[in-house]
């Protein structure tokens, strides 16, 4: 494993243990060149997935891109990082178990929204606002009403 600090190929594993959900191995490493310490994760990958974008373009599935989008939605929220990692792993397992090598970006978005809904309401709405391309406050209102979070019969605030 290459050191992320100095690029040296000579690194050593100091500690290995399963993650909380036992779907990965967490390895603490030290670089024999610069002494830098870092963590890597080893996961089982059942198949190489291809994402079919809305435009029809096909790109390889990138778990790290998925993790970045979830992390962005969860920014400044009080959510356990292990719970977020379990949710991401669950989304990946769902995608791999579909039985098809190709998955649509819509499928990924729906699985992430389902996962975030159970993790944090604010992160769920943040992700949905980007995924569903909200353009104004009315889009948020409609979405929350559709999701059952706002009673449409209540009068709007005239403040």
UniProtKB/TrEMBL annotation:
UniProt record, GO biological process: negative regulation of DNA-templated transcription
Residue ranges constituting the ATP-cone domain according to the UniProt record: 49-139
Keyword Ribonucleoprotein included in the entry's annotation: no
Domain of life: Bacteria
Record-linked InterPro entries: ATP-cone_dom, NrdR-like_N, RNR_NrdR-like
GO terms, molecular function: ATP binding; DNA binding; zinc ion binding
Annotated keywords: ATP-binding, DNA-binding, Metal-binding, Nucleotide-binding, Repressor, Transcription, Transcription regulation, Zinc, Zinc-finger
Cofactor note: Binds 1 zinc ion.
Alphabetical list of PANTHER family matching this protein: TRANSCRIPTIONAL REPRESSOR NRDR
The protein's name in its UniProt record: Transcriptional repressor NrdR
Organism phylogeny: Bacteria, Pseudomonadati, Pseudomonadota, Alphaproteobacteria, Hyphomicrobiales
Gene this protein is translated from: nrdR
């Amino acid at each position: 494993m290459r050191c992320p600090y100095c690029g040296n190929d000579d690194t050593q594993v100091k500690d290995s243990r399963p993650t909380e959900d036992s779907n990965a191995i967490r390895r603490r490493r030290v670089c024999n060149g610069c002494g830098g310490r870092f963590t890597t994760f080893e996961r089982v990958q059942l198949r190489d997935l291809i994402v079919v974008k809305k435009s029809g373009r096909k790109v390889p599935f990138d778990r790290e891109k998925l993790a970045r989008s979830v992390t962005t939605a969860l920014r400044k929220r009080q959510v356990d990082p292990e719970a977020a990692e379990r949710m991401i792993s669950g989304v990946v397992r769902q995608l791999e178990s579909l039985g098809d090598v190709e998955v649509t970006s819509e499928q990924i978005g729906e699985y992430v929204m389902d996962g975030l809904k159970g993790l944090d309401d604010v992160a769920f709405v943040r992700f949905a606002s980007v995924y569903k391309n909200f353009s104004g406050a009315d889009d948020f209102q409609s979405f929350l009403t559709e999701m059952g979070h706002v009673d449409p019969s209540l009068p709007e605030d005239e403040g």
